[in-house]
Structures are given as structure tokens and as C-alpha cells.
């Protein structure tokens, strides 16, 4: 049995496998989702419920959430009904191995932990929430569940957390403060790591980070969100292959939509480039307008929209850790690079991107070129055109 605790009974793997792929014998039925609580594709029920809960928070409750790095969720999320066509198209463009989104302009847009923090404001430095040094085991799960008042082993933690948030504790003592904060984080994370589809299991592998509540803000919660996004995309693609209706995680789709639309330039319809966290800028009206601006037209026998009309915004107009991959044909490269790469097929692509660390110390932007022969650094993008 693995020493890091991620492969013991009751835990999902470190990479957060899709709940459909976890054998029932590896998980007790304690986290079974009740069948009467499905959240179908495109539903904004989880956002609406969270907003109803946070509307009851006092200023002190919001300060506690802010100190832990979850203040953006306490300020309310946009009540968004996810666009199904756009969501399915966006999922199809996600590369879960390179953690990137491919656009229609032969470019690849990578996303990082820092980008999750830019959108939601959650911490992105420190140990990951499943780090081997954190306390793990069945007693850890039981401790967390008891602290938020789970009524039985069969009640999902998010349901118990929602019950706590419906009547927020007074937080006059540290014990009440920690109980409230645990419940809030569990409910927020459930919108990212659990699809709420009937018959699925709730993930609990971030529970070790909730034992020492004074250290919550020092953990890398953004990495947990990234893994949840990748898992949601893998599961949705698997559903498509099985001819099943995809049921992606609402929080994961919200991240992908905001990240993609915020990095695209739609002229006058573009989002303002100032203001963090970025979630505070978006609402249903803005997202609908940006999706319409990104729409190319109809494709296929049924009235299905096709997207990708936007172009990348300049790096100075985005609040993200920008790294882009460009697909170039060797025929478009200068003679020296073409000879060095010796690509035989005409569409063997190279990956070109900006190195922000090198750019900071140079007046000219630094471009690195990756091929099967290694990495080369040049001082101007014009050398590749």
C-alpha cells in the first residue's frame, strides 16, 4: 500500500481519477450521492445555491473566507447557465496531458495554478492538499465529517456542509470559526470535484488540508482545481465515446470558460483587463456576449454552433501567466532552423512559446523553440515567420 496515503482505502488517487473508474470495493458507500440530487448539464443550481448561502454571511464570515483565500466565493459567483454547445466545444479543445486549450488559430494556450488563482483568488503556493506530510487515513476523514456535523456515514460531506452554512455559526470562538470555514471550503470544492450526478462518489482527498485550519491558506488549492478540471474533461470525453450525455463539473466548466474568453480579443466586446479575481468581472450577460462574439457559424446537419472566432489578446492585456504554443510548418521557418530540425513530413510542428523569466531580464522578448532535437532560444519571433 502506498506510503503517501493517496492509494489507501477511502482515498482517490493523487491524480483524482474519474469517480466512474473507481472500483466500489475501494470506497465505502459513505460518500454515495443521493439519487434525488442530480445536477444536469448546463445547470447553474450549484452557483445559485452557493449565492443563497453566502447571502446570509456577516462581514466577519466573509473576512474568515478571505483570510483563507476563498473570499471570491463568499462574495457570490455569477449565476450562469452553462452553454452546452460552447462547453462541449471547449472540452474537445482541452489537452489533459499538456494542460492546455487549442484555439482555431494554430495556437495552444496553457493554463497554470497561477491562472486559477487569478480567476478565483485561491492560494496557489505551498504544499498540495494531498501532500504526503499531511495527516491521512480513515480517522482524518471521520474527524472532518464529525466537525461539520455529518449525521451518518452515508451522508455526503457537501450535504452536511450545506446544512452548516444555512445557519452560519456565530464564529465567536476558534472552534466555531474552524467549523464554519471547513464547511464552506468543502461546499465550494464540491462544485469543482464532484459532478453531483446520481450514483457517483464524492472526492475526499483534499480533507488532509482541513485538519490544521490555521494552515489552510498555505496550501496549493489551485492545483486541486486544475486536477479537477482535467478529470472533468477526461470524463466528458469518455462519455462522448460511450454515447452518454456528458455531465461536466460546473466549477470546472466555469474556469475553462472564463480562462478562454478572458484570453481572447473581441475588440469592443473584450473584457476589461484590470481587476482581480477575474470571477468578479463576469456575469451571465457578459459571458453570453463573449460566446456570441466567438461564434463562427453553424456546422453539421443539426443547428450546432461552431466557435473559435477570437484571437489571442496581447500579453500586457491579460492577468494570467501567459505561455503560448504555436504550430509552425518547417517551410515557414528560416533556413538555419529548417536545416537543424530536419523534419521530413511537411506538417511536423514545432512548439514556440514565451519564457517570462528570461523576458524579464532582456529588452527583447525571448522565444524558445522545441522540437524532437531539443530546445533552442531566439531573441525575436520574426525569425520564425
Helix content: 25-40%
Write the H/E string, N to C.
HHHHEEEHEHHHEHHEHEEEEHEHEE
- What is the molecular shape? globular
Number of domains: 2
> In what range is the share of β-strand residues?
5-15%
Mind describing the biggest β-sheet? 7 strands, antiparallel
Q: Which stretches are poorly predicted, pLDDT < 50 over at least 5 residues?
A: 1-40, 328-385
Strand order of the largest sheet: 1-2-3-10-11-12-13
Integer-rounded radius of gyration: 22 Å
Structural class: alpha+beta
Number of strands: 13
Distance between the termini: 53 Å
Description:
It is a single chain. This protein is an alpha+beta fold and 385 residues long. 36% of the residues lie in helices and 12% in strands. It contains 13 helices and 13 strands. The strands form four sheets. The protein has a seven-stranded antiparallel β-sheet. The protein has a two-stranded parallel ribbon with strand order 4-5. Helix 7 (157-166) crosses helix 8 (174-193) and helix 9 packs across helix 10 (250-263). The termini are far apart.
Amino acid at each position: 500500500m502506498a506510503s503517501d496515503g493517496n492509494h489507501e482505502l477511502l482515498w482517490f488517487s493523487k491524480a483524482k481519477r474519474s469517480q466512474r473508474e473507481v472500483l466500489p470495493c475501494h470506497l465505502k458507500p459513505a460518500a454515495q450521492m443521493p439519487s434525488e440530487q442530480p445536477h444536469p448539464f448546463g445547470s447553474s443550481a450549484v452557483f445559485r445555491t452557493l449565492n443563497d448561502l453566502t447571502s446570509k454571511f456577516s462581514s466577519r464570515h466573509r473576512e474568515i473566507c478571505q483570510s483563507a483565500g476563498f473570499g471570491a466565493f463568499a462574495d457570490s459567483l455569477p449565476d450562469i447557465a452553462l452553454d452546452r454547445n460552447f462547453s462541449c466545444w471547449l472540452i474537445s479543445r482541452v489537452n489533459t496531458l499538456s494542460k492546455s486549450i487549442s484555439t482555431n488559430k494554430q495556437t495552444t494556450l496553457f493554463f497554470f495554478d497561477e491562472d486559477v488563482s487569478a480567476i478565483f483568488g485561491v492560494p496557489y503556493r505551498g504544499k498540495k492538499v494531498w501532500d504526503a506530510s499531511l495527516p491521512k487515513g480513515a480517522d482524518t476523514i471521520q474527524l472532518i465529517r464529525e466537525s461539520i456535523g455529518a449525521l451518518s456515514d452515508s451522508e455526503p460531506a457537501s450535504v452536511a456542509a450545506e446544512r452548516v452554512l444555512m445557519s452560519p455559526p456565530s464564529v465567536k470562538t476558534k472552534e466555531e470559526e474552524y467549523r464554519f470555514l471547513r464547511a464552506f471550503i468543502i461546499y465550494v470544492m464540491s462544485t469543482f470535484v464532484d459532478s453531483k450526478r446520481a450514483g457517483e462518489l464524492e472526492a475526499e482527498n483534499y480533507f488532509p488540508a482541513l485538519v490544521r485550519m490555521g494552515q489552510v491558506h498555505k496550501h496549493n488549492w489551485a492545483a486541486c482545481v486544475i486536477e479537477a478540471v482535467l478529470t472533468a474533461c477526461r470524463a466528458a470525453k469518455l462519455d462522448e465515446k460511450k454515447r452518454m450525455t456528458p455531465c461536466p463539473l460546473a466549477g470546472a466548466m466555469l474556469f475553462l470558460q472564463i480562462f478562454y474568453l478572458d484570453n481572447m480579443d473581441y475588440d469592443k466586446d473584450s473584457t476589461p483587463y484590470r481587476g482581480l479575481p477575474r470571477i468578479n468581472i463576469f456575469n451571465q450577460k457578459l459571458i453570453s456576449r463573449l460566446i456570441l462574439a466567438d461564434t463562427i457559424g453553424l456546422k453539421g446537419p443539426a443547428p450546432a454552433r461552431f466557435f473559435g472566432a477570437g484571437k489571442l489578446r496581447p500579453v500586457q492585456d491579460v492577468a494570467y501567466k501567459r505561455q503560448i504554443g504555436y504550430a509552425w510548418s518547417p517551410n515557414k521557418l528560416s533556413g538555419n532552423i529548417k536545416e537543424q530540425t530536419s523534419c521530413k513530413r511537411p506538417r511536423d510542428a514545432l512548439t514556440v512559446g514565451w519564457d517570462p523569466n528570461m523576458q524579464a531580464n532582456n529588452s527583447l522578448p525571448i522565444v524558445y523553440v522545441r522540437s524532437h532535437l531539443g530546445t533552442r532560444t531566439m531573441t525575436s519571433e520574426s525569425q520564425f515567420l
